[in-house]
Specification:
The complex is a heterodimer of chains A (267) and B (216). Chain A is an alpha/beta fold. Chain A has a single domain (3-266), classed as P-loop containing nucleotide triphosphate hydrolases (Rossmann fold). Chain A has twelve helices and eight strands. Chain A has an eight-stranded mixed sheet, with helices on both faces. In chain A, helix 1 (16-29) packs across helix 11 and helix 5 (99-112) runs parallel beside helix 6. Chain A starts with a strand and ends with a helix. Residues 245-252 of chain A have low confidence and may be disordered. Chain B is α/β, with parallel strands linked by helices. Chain B folds into two domains: 4-83; 108-211, Pectate Lyase C-like. Chain B contains four helices and 15 strands. Chain B has helices at 21-32, 36-39, 54-67, 83-96, and strands at residues 4-6, 11-14, 43-48, 71-72, 108-111, 120-123, 126-129, 138-141, 145-151, 154-157, 167-172, 176-179, 182-185, 198-203, 206-211. In chain B, helix 3 links the parallel strand 3 and strand 4.
Chain lengths: 267, 216
Amino acid sequence: MGEVIVITSGKGGVGKTTTTANIGTGFSLEGKSTVLVDADIGLRNLDVVMGLENRIVYDLVDVVDGVCRLRQALIKDKRYSNLYLLPAAQTKDKNAVTPQQMQELTSELAKEFDYVIVDCPAGIEQGFKNAIAGANKAIVVTTPEVSAVRDADRIIGLLEANGLRNPQLVINRLRVDMVKRGDMMNIDDMIDILAIELLGVVPDDEHIIVSTNRGEPAVTNNDSIAGQAYRNIVKRILGEDVPFMNLESDQGFMSKLAKMFGFGKKK
Amino acid sequence: MRYVKGTKEGLYILIKEDMDLDKIKDNLKDKIKPSKRFFEGAKIVNFKGKKLTREEFDELKDLVENDYGMSVLGDYTQDTDLLSDKEEAKENTAYEKLPYDNVIQDKVLMVRATVRSGQLIEYNGNIVIIGDVNPGAQIKATGSIVVMGTMRGVAHAGSNGDYGAFVSALNLLPAQIRIGDIITRSPDGLGIRTSVPEMAVVKRGLILVEPYLPNR
């Protein structure tokens, strides 16, 4: 029986879809059979980020409505044979499925795959309720902005109220230089407010924009610092103890990150 | 209900089949009298819609000419077919006489707009989009699809299983084309970009995309 992980944030634009694509692809790189589920009905993006948009014939709503079998709607990734995508419908809206139906769907998928990763839409309405319905683990994505952290806090509360205890945190798009100058919230401040386990920090990286536009997740790119961060996140989920997880101090972590930046530049 | 119909020849007064003479008179009073000044001096070609007897015709003509100041030009006739029937018959024969093989006479839905992501245009007939179709949009027709712009979305022609249907666009860059139950997708990567109008048709069980104006 596989694990169902929901990637959520509350606020839009913090990188849920990018994180879903990268963690999912990361799992398949580690040899785990993985399916990505786009729960953002009506505003689907995961197919575009994965570069699989032109392969969509059936979607999640078709499966739920019984138009097709689950197998028929799953799109095999063009690079990795153990990675699949269940796309969202674009011409429907969030009310096209119910939490009950999502729960049945994800548990069906969990029978066949090691990991089911659900990309949650922004907001706390129907779409959010659908996305978290079948999950047994949650990852909250936030950026170092007051508004994103505020929304993440709200989401953590809602997750706990729905029985998803101990969500883990991914801090996305951190700019080390700005943190050093004191112009950006630092990691300790965020952990202090949110009081959940830190799964990883993804630095701001131009590679992400390029890879998103090309439909190739950055995690496959060895030159990308964000890709490295996602690879580490995947390893941590798999239970490996990867350094800069246990941050003794903000300083130590920063110097490590700075070193990585330097390394990246030389290349 | 329209009671006066304008045509190339002039005005006709339309009479419902089931009305008797008194009712017709009442109706004329109700409808023409309020706009008497507008109709004064108007030349009525004839009455239409109901087969009138000679007496009824004369009485109505008298009423219209004397009470409302219009003049009836036509004479009494038994031929009271509604004009519209004749027009339709004429159009059909005109189309049948065309010396081409590929003439489609079917319902057409014309949309003058940019069709955006998440929008689905579905029609029982042909669809013509005057504008672009963006990625994430879907056009579904039982007949053919013509896009007078750039087609970037999903086009499904012949959705009832008609392999004779086609998809054409000034700039055909779709995510997917489906004709009947055949599905094809665009190649990965940017592919070859052409700027000539193209058309997708089914040939030997495959969807084939080719320019339909070979000399451009």
